[in-house]
Amino acid sequence: MADDPRTTSAADPSDPSGSSGEPPRRSLWRRYLDIPLIWKLAVALVLGVVAGLAVGEPITVIEPLGDIFLRLLSMLVMPLILLTLVSGVASVSPTTLGRIGGKAFIYYLVTTAFAMAAGIGLALLISPGAGLTLDGTEEVEEQSAPPLSQVLTDIVPENIFSALADGRVLAVMFFALVAGVALAFLQDSGEERLSSLAADLRRVVDGGVELVFLIIRGVLQYSPIGVFALIAVVVGETGADALLPLAKLTGVVYGGIAVQIVVYTVILLLFRAPIGRFFRAAKEPMLTGFVTRSSSGTLPVTSQAAEKLGVGKGVYSFTLPLGATINMDGTAIYVGAATVFVADVTGAQLTLAQLATVAAVGVLASVGTAGVPGAGLIMLTMAVTSAGLPMGPVALVAGIDAILDMGRTVCNVTGDLTGTRVIAKSEKGMLAEDAGRRARPDSAVEREEAPGRPRIR
Length: 457
Prior knowledge:
cell membrane; transport; transmembrane; transmembrane helix; Proton glutamate symport protein
């Protein structure tokens, strides 16, 4: 008699599924990893709002969970900038690098100028501060950005380790650019010993890049917990009623951000970029920027999104850190709208010359203010002072700065990624058009880099 197939399968020691022949049950952790990150973040966002409204100020007890998330992201920013920029620059000729830098700088200045105009225009149309008074308003201490001469001098670090520890992005970028260019020349050296050493050093740098990205993937799995804590604390401290007097300003700022994202979409269409694919890759850095309120802190996630779009490291390793430092489209919208709001509250009528001064100050100040939470308040105080307005009403805006900062960071991050995608398209060999067809689905990319992913250098 033939063997019973059920008995055979049960006795087969090579069957990893056990005696039943069924696939093994996945662990709870594996099921969690299989859920797309965007859905985990969205659920955490909603639960954070609900918890903040239900519990109120006592919810601040979970604030350390959010602080840990911010610290994890901050921990990765400097190594990411240093390693990816050295690796990227070493793979690009100095001529190409100069073109990329020029295009990035022009793009960021033009979009920031448009964003400032959009913020001022919408605010003048709606008059968000009409009807409010100065009663009970606290005086806010004026903040100032460093002079331009100091900004330019500080780009060259006295000590690279000090610059890394202090988080001075421009100084670290300067060192990484110099090191990358030097490594590129070493690789092309005619002396075999030098070229061999350069190849070894390049492998070490590339290995460091892969190590940082591996850590990033682990941090992203913790991000829903951090998102929940951050949102719950903000809502618990602010409360729904605190937003009502400034609802019009909030609407103007977010309306301006929506207009700016439409502008990004038009730019992408002009360069024949697939819109659906772009926003599928951009959704995670956009949401991360929303909850962390930091363009610099979102760099690890934005860099991964650039890789998903097929952008070469030679482009995104330079344009993204630069954009996180000088590209403040969302902040420009906020500064323009908030300056008009301050004028409304004080009953002042802004002249055309004052509006032009505010726009110019906002655009130029973006070069001297870092892409970190709260930098917008510095730009706002500069704009209000340049327009000759009193500082008192800035306290009203400062009360909801966290809410507005969430939206403007989304705009900043989206602008960085748009510019990076457009510049990569304009540079030969810096964009893998078929990267999306070879990449794994989003949920798999979050867990593990695809072995066959394109590596455009």
